[in-house]
């Protein structure tokens, strides 16, 4: 009973307080800025998929600078930076994936070699859209308005 009375007393005090009424606290969410880059786990795929048809309809070449992403438009150019060694390379999205939800992007063997993680199989990368297919006719802009989507993390990373 004492707890109820104490709660009631505090509520009444706050309700009649001139400070509480004159200066109500407004909670507004911070404005959300849409990033043009994302940070996540990258893996690579190679021989098992060599020669197979990708989502774009072209034949997969593990020696090309290409990648698979779940949501970016096919044909988008993305600069990928390995955050462990700061190596960067620009790739073209030509496939869908990765199938493992905890990963953001699958890259070709040549891309993994250029980024320096072919031995480990996985690394943390920064991905920034350089241009999207709709910009191919617009030479005035160098960065895309395409926003990388953040896939929910789940599952566990597995080796190649």
Q: Overview of this structure, please?
A:
The longest helix has 15 residues, at 2-16. Strand 3 and strand 4 (88-95) form a beta hairpin. The protein has 3 helices and 6 strands, in the order ααβββββαβ. The chain is of the alpha/beta class. Residues 27-33, 137-145 and 149-160 have low confidence and may be disordered.
Keywords:
26% strand, disordered C terminus, Barwin-like endoglucanases, alpha/beta, 6 strands, six-stranded mixed beta barrel
Quick summary:
This protein has 160 residues and is of the alpha/beta class.
* Helix amount: 10-25%
- Judging by the overall fold, what is the CATH architecture of the domain at 37-135? Beta Barrel
What is the averaged pLDDT score? 77
Strand content: 25-35%
Give me the CATH superfamily of the domain at 37-135: RlpA-like domain
Distance N to C terminus: 63 Å
What is the string of helix and strand elements?
HHEEEEEHE
Can you lay out the helices and strands and say which pair or pack?
Blueprint: H1 2-16, H2 18-22, E1 37-45, E2 66-69, E3 77-82, E4 88-95, E5 105-108, H3 109-115, E6 122-131
Parallel strand pairs: 1-5, 2-4
Antiparallel strand pairs: 1-6, 2-5, 3-4, 3-6
